[in-house]
Amino acid sequence: KEIFLKDYKSPAFYFDTVDLKFSLGEEKTNVASKITVFPSVEGTSSPLVLDGEDLKLISIKVDGKELKEGDYHLDSRHLTLPSPPQGKFTLEIDTEIQPQKNTSLEGLYKSSGNFCTQCEAEGFRKITFYQDRPDIMAKYICRIEADKSLYPVLLSNGNLIEQGVLEGGKHYAVWEDPFKKPCYLFALVAGQLESRDDVFVTRSGRKVSLRIWTPAQDVPKTAHAMYSLKAAMKWDEDVFGLEYDLDLFNVVAVPDFNMGAMENKSLNIFNSKLVLASPETASDADYAAILGVIGHEYFHNWTGNRVTCRDWFQLSLKEGLTVFRDQEFSSDMGSRTVKRIADVSRLRNFQFPQDAGPMAHPVRPHSYIKMDNFYTGKVYEKGAEVVRMYKTLLGTQGFRKGMDLYFKRHDGQAVTCEDFFTAMQDANGADFANFLLWYSQAGTPVVKVSSSYNAEAHTFSLKFSQEVPPSPGQPVKEPMFIPVAVGLLDSSGKDMPLSSLYHDGTLQSVAGNNPPVFDTVLRVTKKEEEFVFCDIFERPIPSLLRGYSAPVRLESDLSDSDLFFLLAHDSDEFNRWEAGQLLARKLMLSLVSDFQQNKPLTLNPKFVQGLKSILCDTGLDKEFIAKAITLPGEGEIMDMMEVADPDAVHAVRTFIRKELASQLKSEFLSTVQNNRSSEEYTFNHPNMARRALKNTALAYLASLEDPEITELALCEYNAATNMTDQFAALAAIAQKPGKTRDDVLADFYSKWQHDYLVVNKWFSLQAMSDIPGNVENVRNLLNHPAFDLRNPNKVYSLIGGFCGSPVNFHAKDGSGYKFLGEIVLQLDKLNPQVASRMVSAFSRWKRFDESRQKLAKQQLEMIMSANGLSENVFEIASKSLA
Ligand code: ARG
Ligand code: ZN
């Protein structure tokens, strides 16, 4: 059933207190709830409708009186009281559930023997009958009863107020959460866990106990997560003045988890991949992801929990904002430019394609069938870009004022994206005109800009035009409010001082001539619009959209030589990288067309020269170099083509890489040599940057058919003392099929078979391989003893990894599509959320040539015809076919 934003109605009944009693068992679990209910309007005649799925109703009482059949209606999704009492009343419901059989990993389920929960978005209804919507906020008490030896640790939200021993080897604990919360933030954990404990003292002097829980053997691997948590707590105080509000903060790591992590009040539950790390088993990327996600979930305590969403359409209110906050946190802890580059690449490779496909939806969707399908790059990453634009427009202080007002107005409430917008505007007396369109219009705006210099008048003009492409349900779009940060470079490569500009027939001064300003933010709001800079005494090279100030596709009239100039000189490091990417994209697209016409491929020597000068520039940050010499992804290039041609794009990217490797072989070799280190592993920017550069160079070299390089990679593999270096060497070796590859892959497995997170890396490396016919290898790996279709991480590594290989997933013979079609159906029986993430790989089928289209469509139709398809998969598959 499709649910629409425009149909939102505030609830007829609110819940005040919720008293839950869990009796956890091996065969069945009993859940008793006692809720105080009150009508929103006295004397309402509305029925009370509760959500419930896969629940066995044992009994239901109103004000202590048991209801008989006929006093209520029960169907497979709802429990309805047609005529509840007129005033406040208590509702008591007993249900029975079977968490041990719950493979969907939502609601209450078991993961390696322990009980845990995942309620967002709509999983609480699998625990007990409830108004499962975020605008129902109540105070919870939770009593957990379980076998003491099997489940020595019993956790829920808030404070532990009572615990004790019971008969029959059982024990209990009672938790009370003093803050009102929606049910999606409820959590319960019971199991054999141990904790790493620490303390954080807030700036107002509250002593907060921090505990990170895992199975005993993994506790040593939680040091980095604890470091990250404390850093996040401090950062939120320093940057936003936000303090933690309870005396205890728990984090639990579980191996079976659909997503990354969940911000349940004071009891965050994490996919263990995002908690556990040691230098030997986790890579720099893992360390960085842990820092970011620990931060993300912690930051939700204010942006999400204290102020939550009125309904699920508002998801970006908490997720866009919290992603923005975690991005800023990671920037402050490492390198801002490098973080920005990584985030923008992600956006381009994953979100842009989605935004141009059948599942395109605005940051605030208008409708959904299954909310879980909307935990997307649109809501998260594009939502974060929208928040970033407020900051770009208001500056750091103005943004902070807006945040302060937002909390002042809405603490303890369930609100909407407009409320955030209004707080930002009101706090600054600003006028953001049609900015709200960012929430309602899907699609990535295309912004064209042309420039001209008038040497007599000393003016420089930038003419903008914008177009938002149509998307499902939105054929025509309005122009958007696009902040474009601009600087102008003089012929020596320095930023020119900006004094004033003409816009809309008026002369505006560019704030603050003393001290001089070197960049400004243009507010592009119309379909066509011109800005004319005055007092420009030589033809400048414009640096446009600095820091990627808006999530648009910018098409400028900059020439290649302008771009090489920006690559060499722009003071905005992000735009230096961007200039290199633009050059690379142009180059790749033109080679793709050569390839398609069977023309021989040749590489522009200027491009090689440009990359060489970056590679050898000792003044640059090493991680910046690593990013700047990395070509745009194949997905990004396919996304820019009329008809996506995976074979051509792959061939071209491989060709350029190999050509660069052979022409810059000695530079790459010395990069590898000069960036080795025998020091102990440390997670800090200089060391990660060094490893990133070395390993990027190694990956280039490994594209050559060269025994000397194989030797070198083997040597790196054997000498590695941390996973970053070891895995990079393994990946380098695995580029070329053959005995060395097989041997080293086998060696790696035998070293790490006891560590399932490392084994997942091994799965995904093989799954993503572009070795021809790799689908067979992946099929075999399905039967590998370490593989398990019920564990999402393993599915994402093996199946998700495979779909990430353009050549093999999109193989001309349809073998990749057929493979995925089969797997989706198997997965859907076990875990619809995971199945639906996998089926999304088909959603862009119309972007390919006719024969591929036909093959992909067949699979989608086959999936649609299956019996008992979940709503999750149905929504993606049917919208893809539409
Ligand atoms: N709120 C979680 C986060 O931190 C994600 C939960 C997603 N759950 C789901 N079923 N889609 O981003
Ligand atoms: Zn989140």
Any descriptors?
882 residues, alpha+beta, eight-stranded mixed sheet, six-stranded mixed sheet, 26 helices, 21% strand, binds arginine, binds zinc ion
Which outline best applies? globular
Low-confidence stretches: none
Structural class by SSE content: alpha+beta
- The level of helicity is 25-40%
Instruction: Describe the largest sheet.
Output: 8 strands, mixed
Q: What ligands can be seen in this structure?
A: arginine, zinc ion
The number of strands is 33
Distance between the termini: 17 Å
Q: State the helix count.
A: 26
Radius of gyration: 28 Å
Major sheet: arrangement of strands = 6-5-9-3-2-12-15-14
What percentage of the residues does DSSP assign to strands (E)? 15-25%
Q: Average pLDDT across residues?
A: 97
Structural notes for this entry:
The structure is a single chain. 40% of the residues lie in helices and 21% in strands. Helix 5 (378-410) packs across helix 6 and helix 9 packs across helix 13. The chain is of the alpha+beta class. The strands form nine sheets. The protein has an eight-stranded mixed β-sheet with strand order 6-5-9-3-2-12-15-14, with no helix packed on it. The longest helix has 33 residues, at 378-410. It starts with a strand and ends with a helix. It is globular and about 85 Å long. Arginine binds next to strand 20 and helix 2. Its cofactor is Zn(2+). Residues 560-882 form the Peptidase M1 alanyl aminopeptidase C-terminal domain. Residues 20-185 form the Aminopeptidase N-like N-terminal domain. Residues 443-556 form the Peptidase M1 alanyl aminopeptidase Ig-like fold domain.
